[in-house]
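Suppose you are handed a protein chain with no further information: no name, no annotation, nothing but its sequence. What can you learn? This example shows the usual starting point.
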Amino acid sequence: MNEQVPPHFHKEDRISEIDIIPDSAVYTDLPRSAEEGRFAIKLHGSTYELYRWLDGDWRLLNDAGANAFVGCRLYNSGTLTAATATLTALTWDTETYDTDTFHSTSANPSRITIPAGQAGKYAIHAQYRYEHAANGSRQIQVTKNGTNIAYFQKHAGSGGGGGSPEDTIQISTVQELAEGDYIEIKAYQDSGTTLDIIAGSISTYFEVYKVG
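A reasonable first move is to predict its three-dimensional structure. Written in structure tokens, the prediction is:
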């Protein structure tokens, strides 16, 4: 009986030999010359790293860290207030998650700051739900290092529950951010009176995650 080979798969592509590298070894302990396409497996703690010899060097094939989620999500456990005709930076006292210490609840709690080694493109999304009032407009801003980079504005009662006890406003953007850049969410309303900003993880929140 002839041996069956799947389409687009050649017998010479099969792995004939794999080098097993002990946990105590380092990358440089991998054999420094090998046949093109040869594989090596190295135990690293409780996980295995798979290498392949390509173009004169070992290439790590299963670098889980390269695709790991990086981001931060914040909310407030207590009600905030926004004075009329005043731009207010919202502060955040609770972290749903924070993979790389983007945020502190004690030092500059209004900020998400890009940590070392995590520069790149970030998706930014925020929402706040405020006490309903019939007058004026509402605005939400994203600022980078204190400068407005995105905003959305609506008039009282124009969607988001107009006429109901509470209204909601949201914003989303994707921005290129460098190490040390900080992002804040700012609220503005000119109803003529101070309004409450409603607490809770599904009412008023701020989140960023790395997309590239």
